[in-house]
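Reviewer comment 2.1 asked that we show a complete input and output for one of the modelled complexes. We chose the zinc ion case, as it is the one discussed in the main text.
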Amino acid sequence: MTPHFTPLLHVVFLLGLGWLGAVVGSFANVCAYRLPFGKSVIWPASHCPRCLTAISGRDNLPIFGWLLLRAECRRCGLPIPSRYVVMEMVTGCLFALVHVSIVAERGWKSPIDMIYTARLLLGASLVTFLIIATVMDYDWMIITDSVTVPGMISGLLLGTLLPGSRPVPMSADSMLDGFLVGFGGIVTGFAVVVIVRYVGGIIAGREAMGLGDATLLGVIGAHLGWKATIITFFMAPFFGLTLEFWKVVRRVRDLITGRQSAQNIKEMPFGPYLSMAAIVTLLTWPLLWKFWAAELFEAIRVVFLGLE
Ligand SMILES: [Zn+2]
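Response of the prediction step:
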């Protein structure tokens, strides 16, 4: 591949991945909607919940199908919630951002090589499972094993078969190393939540976190390794705080303008925050590591092991 074609190649990859992400996002919506009830995600095809008309191929296109239908069922006019199309767009953007993050780390090299492919597969896999878990947790306050177990297997397999697939410094040189990094990530994910659950249970007298959070952090650990898992876990509450802050701002605004408070923002489970933090870690891990996490782990090592 001559360097001449490389910029064009990146544009093609960016658009292609955006579209692929939208398709995956559409499928993720179906998974999040059906898996909690043990329903098949393949059969039957998507249909209108009121008149049961199957959604035809053209109308089922991500984003464009929704626009084409003007957000209504073609037969009975039942409104199609905009969140479906929002999730498709978000997933599309995240797939494209995975590409950007890889380019940011290795420069404008041609994306057709082994390391790029490995990184892309791992990033896309993590994004996919996080999107399904987030939508499911948001809707039903549950994250089923039918999402997290395949998620852990996927992260572990990719990290083992393609040891270079994880972002530096968690990337490995051998398959055994790759396996251990992912396995350590799963164990760390479970351990952190179990400890917090236990300690939180003593302090707050109620369950601080669900087991769905443990398995979700296991999925994150399998993909990103144990260090990134710890960082993700402690970053997640900040996303929660941001939403709490937004609620306060709205309350104050309503008081000042004398407006009747709009309906309360839905109470959020922890899963979506974990997912948001994991996405930030996935996309910015080399930067996080360089400017912050490396020193943090060094400090922990010195404090706990007394090594200089
Ligand atoms: Zn209908």
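Residues 142-308 form one domain. We note this here for comparison with the apo prediction described in Section 3.2.
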